[in-house]
DNA sequence: CGAAGGTTTGAGAGGCCTCAATTCATGTGG
DNA sequence: CCACATGAATTGAGGCCTCTCAAACCTTCG
């Protein structure tokens, strides 16, 4: 791996508090690899042999069933993913594919588990990551079960705006059909829901969203700190919530 | 707490591998309490000060938003719940209420966190629980996003049958309206979906379900080991999936 | 400039929900 | 033991929401 990546990795919640010895040991068995866009990194059902750490680019986690496909999360640097499957030494429940050209560190699950046994700080960090990931998924289930599409989209727009530092205007970080799938609807429905929200305080310009009336939008969304990640404490900055990993940096 | 509970608690995945010292220490700061049915144990948004361990009875985890309510999980003995919120020292994302008269052990989150710091075995067990819980929630999201109501119900029936040792006939463990909410539909829709499945290999007798044609039902469900918990390795026996805890015993 | 793929718009069907009424199960008090 | 009250489950009617299929439009990129 490149040395210039180390500081970012080292700053991951997973590794921040870990001993230098543990960290260097892990990095020794880790290797980096670059992948072109649209490449399937692994498929759901594959044994999770490596903890993946996205250093550069973007990766989409999705799930398939019966010919259908649903986006589960989009991972941005610097974040790890499929931590849970690695720990349990079990098949991944999601597939992963690159959205852009991506550089990924691959840390053998065996070594990760060994290091956890040795370093209590690492164990604690992993625990924290898992707990955060679990709560993120609980949020997603609540979002799906309790809200309709209009509310989900409105809430996502507000959350995204907050991530961009409260900007009134921002560019969608992924294609609309991916956002649609992430939000549990079709691309057509998303398009119509966007149109409907034009009366609720937003405007569209291609992939750019402009929030013209934040209060109205918040009203339409019914924002809730117990569904939307509204403070920094639980939201490490992923573009779309609940992968296991952390953003920031890049 | 009653001494007769100890063996069951001790056998929880959380505590199984823990030192006697850790276990006894935790049990010393734990106190037991009995609650009548239909009692709100805590509400979403409440700080999670205690890890709850259900020793007897049944507890429902649910979530509210905008006047709506959704069942997230039903916990059966002996299982712990709200582990993630305890670890993060953050508000619970779900509310909990007893379904039956229940006896519950309450373990102060502070002591739990302290014990984790001291005992690596406990830390490892907590990690395992969290990873399992996370994967359970991923399954739930896949279930909601990828399947329709008919498939969700059919799959749940098969899973439930498997939990009951593969019985062709079993009694629903909760009221139908709770099952409906858990599966993300209304009570009316559940009723109609049940009716529809009568042509797909099931029969109904009040709260009793009889699987008359397992193959047909499996066909309708589109069972998938990456959505439904089909082997024992990830399914500790909850009635409805992904709380953080473990069944067995009772 | 043309091809490919994403996005929007339209039309139509179907699924699921809402509201309402009826039936059924449970439990209480007379 | 029955009458009644309460709440669950079912059934029906109607409507909205979301999906599907299809075509047109727009953007990107070779």
Automatic annotation (TrEMBL), chains A, B:
Segments of skewed composition (Acidic residues): 228-237
GO molecular function: DNA binding; DNA-binding transcription factor activity
Ranges for region Disordered: 228-250
Domain HTH crp-type as annotated: residue spans: 147-215
Keyword Ligase: no
Keywords: DNA-binding, Transcription, Transcription regulation
Keyword Transcription regulation attached: yes
Organism domain of life: Bacteria
Pfam families: cNMP_binding (PF00027), HTH_Crp_2 (PF13545)
Record-linked Gene3D superfamilies: Jelly Rolls (2.60.120.10), Winged helix-like DNA-binding domain superfamily/Winged helix DNA-binding domain (1.10.10.10)
Segments forming domain Cyclic nucleotide-binding: 14-133
GO CC terms: cytosol
SMART domains to which the protein is assigned, alphabetical: cNMP, HTH_CRP
NCBIfam families given in the database record: PRK09392.1
Protein name in UniProt: CRP/FNR family transcriptional regulator, transcriptional activator FtrB
Organism from which the protein derives: Paracoccus aminovorans
């Amino acid at each position: 791996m490149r040395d210039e990546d180390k500081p970012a990795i080292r700053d991951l919640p997973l590794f921040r508090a870990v001993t230098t010895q543990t960290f260097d040991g892990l990095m020794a068995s880790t290797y980096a690899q670059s992948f072109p866009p649209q490449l399937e990194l692994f498929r759901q059902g594959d044994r999770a042999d490596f903890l993946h750490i996205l250093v550069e680019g973007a990766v989409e986690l999705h799930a398939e069933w019966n010919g259908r496909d649903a986006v589960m999360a989009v991972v941005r640097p610097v974040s790890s993913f499929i931590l849970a499957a690695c720990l349990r030494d079990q098949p991944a429940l999601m597939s992963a594919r690159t959205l852009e050209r991506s550089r990924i560190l691959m840390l053998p699950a065996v070594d990760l588990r060994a290091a956890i046994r040795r370093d209590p700080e690492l164990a604690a960090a992993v625990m924290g990551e898992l707990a955060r990931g679990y709560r993120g998924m609980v949020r997603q289930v609540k979002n799906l079960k309790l809200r309709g599409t209009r509310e989900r989209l409105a809430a996502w727009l507000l959350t995204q705006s907050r991530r961009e530092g409260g900007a009134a205007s921002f560019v969608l970080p992924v294609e609309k059909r991916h956002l649609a799938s992430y939000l549990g609807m079709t691309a057509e429905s998303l398009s119509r829901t966007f149109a409907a929200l034009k009366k609720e305080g937003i405007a569209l310009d291609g992939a750019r969203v402009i929030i013209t009336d934040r209060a109205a939008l918040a009203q339409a969304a019914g924002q809730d700190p117990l569904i939307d990640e509204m403070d920094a404490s639980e939201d490490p900055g992923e573009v779309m919530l609940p992968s296991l990993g952390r953003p920031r940096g890049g």
